[in-house]
Write a structure and sequence with these properties.
CATH architecture: Up-down Bundle
Number of helices: 9
Structural class: mainly alpha
CATH topology: Growth Hormone, Chain: A
Order of helices and strands: HHHHHHHHH
Radius of gyration: 18 Å
Oligomer: single chain
Helix content: over 70%
CATH class: Mainly Alpha
Length: about 240
Amino acid sequence: MRKTATEAWRTLVPVPGDRHGPLAPLLVVLTVVSGLVDAFSYLALGHVFVANMTGNVVFLAFALCGAKGFSIGSSAAALVAFVLGAVFSGRLATRLAPRRGRMLGATAAGQVVLVAASVVVGWSVGHPGAGATRYALIGLLGLAMGMQAGTARRLAVPDLNTVVLTQTIAGTAVDSRPAGGTGSQVGRRGVGVLAMFIGALVGALCQLHLAEPVGLVVVLVLLVPVAVAAAHLSRSRPPWDLAV
């Protein structure tokens, strides 16, 4: 238990000289962002995710079979937007490589612009989950989350991909002591799972009990410090800033 708690703490507060520097806690914040935006997209825009593409592939299959509450167009739009965002993040990472801090800072700044546009769109209409507004929001948020996922992949911080938890949860179970493993990285992976849960919980509370785009405002409150911190902390080119 002590080892697990230490791993969780060191994910949030890395030791000096850690090979990934402050990237781990910044990616934990982005994992919270994923939970927030998926809560908004699922509850406000219909049965669609903008960060969890596994869910959209399944939803697309449901829609093709005529299941009620699922839309071929919205699932397809989310998939396309996410892929385009990931492609853009790849081009950006290639341009900024090997500076990992600059990659993350630029990506978070791009997300701020896209999410801010989503807030404006969401607040300018009465029902953001209908008509062209729905697709505009799916596109903007899908682009933002595709950028995030692509950048997290390039940063290559173990167990913190920010958008997918299936392998994280499976790895936690397989490596646990009851399964015969060493229990290594259980605390770190648990932080990622908890971050996603907290984001989804807060996002759902905002959506169900407050005005429509308040959850996206919370996303902005989280993204701005990530963008600023990543850019500021990597200014002096510390060792962790270079690609591993």
